[in-house]
Specification:
alpha/beta; Rossmann fold; seven-stranded mixed sheet; globular
Length: about 375
Amino acid sequence: MRIGVPAEIKANEYRVALVPAGAEALVQAGHTVWIERGAGVGSGFSDDLYEQAGAVVVGSAEEVWAYAEMIVKVKEPIEAEWPLIREKQLLFTYFHLAASETLTRALMGTSCIAIAYETVQLENGELPLLTPMSEVAGRLAVLEGAKYLERFYGGRGVLLGGVPGVLPAKVVILGGGVVGTNAAKMAAGFGAQVTILDVSLPRLRHLSDIMPANIQLLFSNRYNIREQLEGVDLLIGGVLLPGKKAPGLVRREDLGRMQPGSVIVDVAVDQGGCVETIRPTTHRDPIYEVDGVIHYGVANMPGAVARTSTLALTNATLPYALRLANRGWQAACRADPALRRGVNLVDGSVTHPGVAEAFDLGCSPVDGFL
């Protein structure tokens, strides 16, 4: 198969979808890999390393898109890339389509095959290609939140762990999944007083067994969320419904319960966010203020630590990319139910129920295309 890796052009995105070791594995399996010049530089991988691995380095994204039967990316294609997508071309990347009707309809118009990292799902519910970036984002959420609590940035001037004689910060985390668990570990490690809210009692029981004493666990409902906003210093949104728009848990009027200079980091922003007032921002301009509360809505948080993120992501994605390349997408999806669940669009039709539900579109079962 002809595989293409274009450079990411989303603002401040430094990750790359394939490391040299991955290129070598694909070449050894009998495939050809074309990668855009400089695509790996932001993650610390030079063009020479790719050439040594057997990949072909080319000068433009247009060449990569025109050549490839399968495009492997990190982030969803942005508007400048839409005209480059060909009919029946396989795209393997993060899409988060349920958060963008514009992107969904644009990709439907190309008649491509879109397999989304974030909806590849194992029988036990695990999302193996989303988990690595959720781990990174959860940990980063605390680091970024701690920074913007500093008075210089307009924050309350609160140190997460406090000091002897001064209480630590109050950190509230919505969602006890991968993002929430990693955020809680990080915040607790700094010495903050942490509360995780989740709707799953089995998950709360599990977290009770493994979390340190400065993490409290609370069932998530409107009453408890509103109560926890009182006195909160850092609120982290980490709720995920696979393939669907994130649930709206914090409303505009709820911000009045929060202290001036408190901070919201909504990791779910790329799925629409679980805070009503959140909107996507960039690493270059990450924060804004609503009703005295600082909002951090960077939609590609892991891009800030590109090398760690690229290595973590490609550890997970390469085996699936090899299956797609070796067998073709249809045979690979017939053989692997997890990969089959990752198919979001085929030939202009929506095949993922969560995306169809988000925009009231018809849903064509993916089995009909296999």
